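Tokens as discussed.
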């Protein structure tokens, strides 16, 4: 079939017949109408494309391929729609959860998506092509415009998030696309999905940059040096957003190891260089005269404030200063008089000496102490000629006051190694030696000096502080003292017999006498040669007695007037009393009469008082008043116990008062502590016979005793009872076994004497008869 151009050509050359011209004229009119309609449609299409370009794109021909209807704003929004398995907008396809499962994308992949990675324009474009609908990977849908992504959308602000495959390779699925002032979230599936836009707020504008400065570094010339040398320091600071007018001040602060400030140097008005660095143009020099550890801090001052990182991190440095090397040398370290902590001794005295030397220095050859020379000097008056030594305000001259002694002792040693403290001790003496050549027998002030010499013959400098030792020798002192005064016993009731013993000690003297003061007004002086083992003394009265003995020397040694020892003697004494008064029989002035040894009648009331007076040294605790009224109740009744309790134990009746403490009485105003009770004589009086075994029972009187104090009140009984009470039977000779044996022995001796005397007389008579008659006479 011929096209329109061929038809026209044929017509112009007359190749067509006239019959055919009408047909082509009609066809031309139709084609003109068609072209006009096509032009109108083209203009409409252009308008549509323009509107599409300036408005967020919607799904075009393949709207049913949207992964997420309406798109998503962020990862959490995507996760929410993933959990809900949101489907396509027409409800025909699978949900986003199902689609992700097909492609092996797990929820954890979405949740742990990487951060946006901006700047990759081809990230989502499949090699520069963009599909506005489903057309297969890299293919454009009919009618869609294709081209580089940046050109297609008119901007290049593109960022994306991605997931990883299980093998670690990257898959990129979601992107952010910026369009003008709006940003859009675009969801796409791998290489073949429709783009969906969702507007999000634009990012905030960046903050306005403010100038800031921080301390950058503090450098030094050397980290360590020898005492006396210098160390230089230079400071650095770094600025941000600073200009030429932003000046800083640098403060260099030196401290010791304990952070105590020593001194400071300043560098003021330092501007930044082209790299925003502040560099002190001058090295700040500090001198370190003493060894030790020091710190240097750099403080940066900017706009009246301390800049960040000042005096910390790289802006603080520590330097070490070592001592200067000292040539090795020997010096005298110590001279001790080791047998006493004092410097005053009594004659005779021999000092016990210890000498020590020390090596000092850390450079040069080693030295050791070879010779220890001990010198003795004695104090001399001013004006003495010779090599006088002036020490601590006194003058000394070398020499020994003891003619039998020496004034120098020299000890020499071979090479020796110092101990752990660097000391050389006098090796010939060990821990020390008795300097018998320096022994002193008389008093005086003396000075010991130690000089040490090394193996090279160099004598150490004099060391008066440690190697000069002054000491004093004094004559033996005279002294006496009372050592002790003892007594046995030290406590008891008056009268108290006490044995006292005094002991004393003397030094270079003798005791003259012992002066005793017994503390009760009695004194005794005993010469020392008459002092026996103990002194006996009796304390007649109670109280605390302080006995003293004063030891008196034969000569006046001091002004103290003797040495005294003391001891306390506690003498206890309690006086007891008992009184009785007749409250029925009164005196003319209405007072009760004394009933002791006074006759009482039936019905009379007798009031008794018992009392104690404590004249001892201590209070009597838990004292119990007791009174036996057994015989009193034979003739009377108890009418007032006076606070006591009547206690009956068998035939015995006692009044017992509660226990109490009896305080020591005031010696100036002694007062008895008393208890009172009252009885009434029975009426009529009993006439019971007097006991033959108990003379106190029914003996016509009321007798009462309290601690040795006795009162007796006779009673007005009838004459017969009175006669019974007053009759005293004759007393028989009081004999005992001894007297009887003596009488028996006397009678036996007399009988034997008479028996033998009678036999002798009878024999004599027989002899007389024989002589007179020649015949014995028988009588």
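Sequence:
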């Amino acid at each position: 079939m011929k096209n329109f151009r061929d038809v026209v050509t044929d017509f112009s050359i007359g190749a067509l017949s006239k019959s055919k011209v009408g047909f082509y004229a009609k066809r031309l009119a139709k084609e003109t109408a068609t072209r006009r309609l096509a032009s109108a449609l083209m203009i409409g299409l252009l308008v549509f494309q323009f509107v599409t370009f300036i408005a967020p794109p919607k799904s075009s021909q393949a709207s049913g391929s949207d992964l997420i209807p309406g798109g998503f704003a962020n990862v959490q929004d995507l996760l929410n729609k993933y959990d809900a398995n949101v489907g396509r907008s027409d409800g025909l396809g699978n949900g986003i959860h199902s689609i992700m499962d097909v492609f092996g994308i797990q929820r954890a992949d979405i949740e742990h998506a990487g951060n946006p990675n901006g700047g990759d324009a081809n990230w989502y474009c499949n090699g520069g092509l963009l599909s506005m609908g489903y057309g297969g990977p890299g293919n454009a849908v009919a009618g869609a415009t294709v081209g580089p992504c940046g050109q297609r959308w008119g901007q290049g602000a593109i960022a994306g998030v991605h997931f990883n495959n299980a093998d670690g390779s990257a898959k990129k699925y979601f992107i952010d696309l910026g369009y003008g002032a709006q940003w859009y979230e675009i969801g796409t599936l791998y290489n073949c999905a429709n783009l969906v836009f969702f507007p999000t707020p634009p990012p905030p504008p960046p903050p306005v940059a403010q100038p800031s400065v921080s301390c950058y570094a503090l450098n030094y010339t050397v980290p360590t040096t020898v005492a006396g040398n210098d160390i230089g320091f230079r400071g650095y600071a770094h600025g941000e957003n600073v200009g030429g007018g932003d000046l800083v001040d640098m403060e260099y602060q030196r401290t010791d190891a304990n952070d105590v400030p020593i001194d400071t140097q300043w560098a003021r008005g330092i501007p930044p260089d082209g790299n925003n660095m502040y560099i002190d143009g001058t090295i700040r020099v500090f001198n370190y005269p003493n060894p030790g550890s020091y710190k240097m801090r750099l403080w940066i001052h900017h706009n009246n404030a301390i800049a960040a990182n000042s005096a910390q991190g790289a802006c603080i440095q520590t330097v070490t200063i070592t001592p200067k090397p000292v040539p090795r040398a020997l010096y005298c370290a110590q001279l001790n008089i080791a047998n006493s902590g004092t410097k005053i001794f009594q004659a005779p005295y021999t000092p016990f000496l210890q000498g020590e030397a020390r090596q000092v220095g850390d450079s040069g050859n080693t030295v050791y102490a070879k010779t220890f020379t001990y010198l003795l000097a004695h104090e001399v008056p001013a004006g003495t000629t010779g090599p006088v030594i002036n020490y601590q305000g006194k003058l000394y001259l070398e020499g020994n006051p003891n003619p039998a002694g020496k004034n120098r002792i020299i000890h020499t040693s071979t090479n020796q190694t110092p101990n752990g403290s660097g000391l050389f001790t006098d090796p010939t003496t060990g821990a020390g030696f008795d300097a018998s050549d320096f022994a002193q027998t008389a008093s005086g002030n003396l000075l010991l000096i130690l000089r040490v010499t090394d193996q090279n013959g160099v004598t150490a400098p004099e060391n008066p502080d440690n190697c000069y030792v002054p000491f004093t020798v004094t004559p033996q002192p005279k002294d006496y003292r009372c050592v002790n005064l003892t007594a046995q016993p030290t406590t008891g009731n008056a009268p108290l017999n006490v044995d006292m013993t005094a002991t004393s000690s003397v030094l270079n003297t003798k005791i003259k006498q012992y002066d005793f003061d017994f503390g009760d007004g009695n004194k005794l002086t005993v010469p020392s040669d008459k002092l026996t083992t103990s002194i006996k003394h009796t304390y007649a009265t109670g109280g605390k007695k302080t006995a003293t003995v004063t030891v008196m020397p034969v000569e006046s040694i001091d002004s103290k007037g003797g040495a005294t020892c003391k001891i306390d003697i506690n003498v206890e004494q309690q006086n007891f009393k008992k009184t009785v008064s007749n409250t029925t029989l009164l005196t003319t002035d209405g007072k009760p009469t004394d009933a002791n040894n006074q006759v009482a009648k039936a019905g009379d009331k007798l009031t008794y008082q018992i009392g104690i007076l404590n004249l001892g040294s201590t209070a009597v605790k838990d004292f119990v008043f007791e009174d036996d009224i057994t015989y009193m109740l034979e003739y009377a009744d108890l009418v007032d116990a006076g606070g006591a309790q009547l206690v009956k134990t068998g035939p015995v009746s006692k009044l017992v008062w509660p226990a109490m403490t009896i305080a020591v009485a005031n010696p100036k105003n002694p007062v008895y502590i008393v208890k009172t009770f009252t009885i009434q004589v029975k009426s009529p009086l009993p006439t019971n016979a007097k006991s033959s075994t108990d003379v106190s029972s029914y003996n016509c009187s009321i007798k009462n005793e309290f601690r040795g104090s006795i009162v007796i009140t006779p009673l007005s009984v009838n004459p017969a009872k009175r006669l019974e009470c007053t009759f005293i039977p004759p007393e028989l000779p009081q004999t005992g076994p001894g007297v009887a044996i003596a009488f028996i022995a006397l009678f036996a001796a007399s009988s034997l004497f008479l028996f033998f005397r009678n036999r002798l007389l009878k024999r004599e008579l027989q002899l007389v008869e024989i002589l007179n008659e020649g015949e014995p006479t028988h009588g």
